[in-house]
Design a protein that fits this description.
Elements: H1 10-43, H2 45-81, H3 85-120, H4 125-140, H5 142-157, H6 162-185, H7 189-217, H8 230-262, H9 266-302, H10 306-339, H11 348-361, H12 365-380, H13 384-409, H14 411-435
Length: 443
Amino acid sequence: MNQDLTVGKPSAVLWRFCLPLFGSILFQQLYNLADSLVAGRFIGESALAAVGNSYEITLIFIAFAFGCNMGCSVIVSQLFGAKRYRDLKTSVSTTWIASGALCLLLMAGGLLLSTRLLRAIHTPADIMESSALYLDIYIWGLPFVFYYNVATGIFSALGDSKTPFFFLAASSTANIGMDILFVTAFRMGVAGVAWATFICQGISSVLAMAFVLKRLASIPCEGRAPLFSWSLLGRIARIAVPSILQQSFVSVGNILLQGIINSFGSGVIAGYSAAIKLNNLVVSSLTTFGNGISNFTAQNLGAQKLARIREGFRAGLRLVWTVCLPLTLAYFFAGKGLLRIFLDSPSGTAMETGITLLRILSPFYFAIGAKLAADGVLRGAGKMRPFMVSTFTDLVLRVVLARIFSIPFGATGVWMAWPFGWTLAAGLSLLFYRKGEWQKSVL
């Protein structure tokens, strides 16, 4: 059901809108968590390392899908808030056409270069074959990833955060069952993990697209909406391209970090793969709250309710910090038990690596949460330059310091670089928000 985010108490509206988004990202992460869980417990530590190793490269493709999601979502939110429904429908079809073309290019490049990318990050020989197999199957499923992301972005733009939640709950639960079935009953190994994800994502994507078409048909507009608009594509691209660049460079940075980590051997890779899944669950959840703040900002910007946006930011910041508190405590004090979800019979190196990473990073979730809340306002207002500046500062600092710190401190030095980047980037994003340039945005 479509929801107008421009009316009602901002804190209550954001809580109702963002909590289903939080549930959605939890189930979204189950795709990757399930892959790692099944690989680690039912195949072995090397399989977990292979899935985790390939995961950093899949994030590049996800960056493009996420960019398409954000570009469409922000513009649709603004048009929905301004009640320009004809342009809204055209922006959706324009995004679908452009996303399809982009996806085909990425698939061609990915299938040609996947092995080279794995070699570039110094993938150990004992997991190279499994990593390449998992990555190739993932690339064939890219159309599902793209169109599902765009569909969920449209639902969020219309104020509907519940429909994506229901899709993800069903498909993620099914994915766990299929992972176990393909690995234990069919003995398909890492390939079974990849194909289970492929099938579940495919079904979710098709259903989500069908529901989007039905939802759009229920929105009244005068005359037939054009299928494509260069002007709307330009507006979408002004949001999407910086988002893609930001996410892509973050992924490239993660790949560079993975290259450093891989030099420490399979035990460290396995421990990192398990711990980073838990870490990404938190960061992805906080990012989703930031996306919710973006939709809230965009709709209210379309309705020219600037004071309401400022109140929404304060409510959003309280929301993300409320979520940070229990997760920080759980990771810091109960990290060993959580890591055992992925590591059935871990080596001492793998467990020690995972525990150290979680204890270093978890206290700084409050900093990254503040950054993502401020970024939500900037992105919802279309102010991508300051958003990118803070993100790239975080990325560059983390990669440079990781390489420097890894010399005297080993793998622990890599984890030590994260808090420096997060803290400085949070300060920059909050500064850009306080300067108020986003208030000058116009449709």
